[in-house]
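Subject: mismatched residue count in predicted assembly?

I count 454 residues in my input, but I want to confirm that the predicted structure covers every chain. Input:
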Amino acid sequence: MPPDARPRLAPRARLRPDRQTGRTLLLYPEAGLALNATAAATLALCDGARTLREIALLLGERFGRDTDAVEAEIGPFLDTLAARGLVREDR
Amino acid sequence: MTAPRPYTLVAELTYRCPLRCPYCSNPLDWAARRDALSTAEWCRVLEEAEALGVVGLNLTGGEPLLRDDLEAIVSTARRLDLYTTLITSGLPCTRERLAALAEAGVDAVQLSIQDVAEAGCDRIAGTRSFAQKLAVAEWVKALGLPLTLNMVLHRSNIGHVAEAVALAERLGAERLELANTQYLGWALPNRAALLPSPEQVAAAREVAVAARERLRGRIDVLFVLPDYMSDRPRPCMDGWGQRFIVVTADGLALPCHAAHTLPGIAWEKVTERPLAAIWRDSPGFNAYRGEGWMREPCRSCDRRAKDHGGCRCQAHALTGDAAATDPACGLSPDHALVVAAREAASGAAPGFLYRAGRAPAVP
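Triage response: the counts match. Full output below for your records.
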């Protein structure tokens, strides 16, 4: 996913808090994923308006990490979800 | 035994259905099992399930649209933030009803098709239905809801996988489930008419695998090699009493939709005991939970954590012993039963025994 892509959750996917664990779940037809803190924060920022670069910048500030390093981490994560039809990429 | 956390509640809201599919998974004596739960009772079951950890709700049946309180049940599911999938034949349904259900909180729709064209679909469903299903698919998409198409595969339609993929593309489905028939419920007395030959299965698999690759990211194409063909049991329900709770139209809480067929277990009703107590403590949910019940060859098998010994209901249906290794497994001493059925599938097929109000005489 290029830095100027504007990812958003596909309509079939939805985030919800997990009361049992305090984590965030990504729910979609017939299945779901338990997200770690970075993944949950990433998807919460994927609104179809922010670019991947902007999301990485925000997360870098929040977690005190280098923007490039965050981008290198969340890019492949979003690519994986896109390949499963759970994230869409607006340009 | 410590109970794990359930994730999905399967609500079989009614056993009534306008279709008469010969592989229906409902009980053979479905007509004697009345809809036992009121709207308020279903809503309470949803609340109790969510408190246990459930995050997904499958509304099924029978045909869930036959319940006129479906909107109220869906509203409760939305309040509880459950991911709610309506699993429907598409009959009876109007655009207005579907819009009301979307508004109430349905997150996704799984629509069944019995075949890829009118004649085949209507013949297998035992009623005119194909044109209506196409209309429902369009309404689902127009409402912006994700659409899963589900086609149960058997000898009469397994040659149509390429056409099913094309239909899913044309209708804008996000997911296509090519679900090989499981030989329980009405499918077992129909097995000789339904079981495809190994050559048919191999050809269908090849088409499905190619489509899955081609459509990756657009349509999730699912084809699981059927247990009768693979010499491996399926990991039924991801393990007994592990992730799923089924609540039946007549109010029983079960680990799977066929568990009521097992003898010697007194299944409990959600109207008589809290769901949490049934899930954690009932003899039925604990009967085959974990690995303690296993005998050889399951007990020492390195695949036991993966397939959980297969399907208890199939083990019982084929061998009379629910604790036996699933005969679908190549290691089962009863595997010859499945091999014989598979070999017979190359011969002439008898006609369908359609689902009806009276239970068939099981051979």
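The longest helix of chain B spans residues 198-214. Marking this ticket as 'not a bug'.
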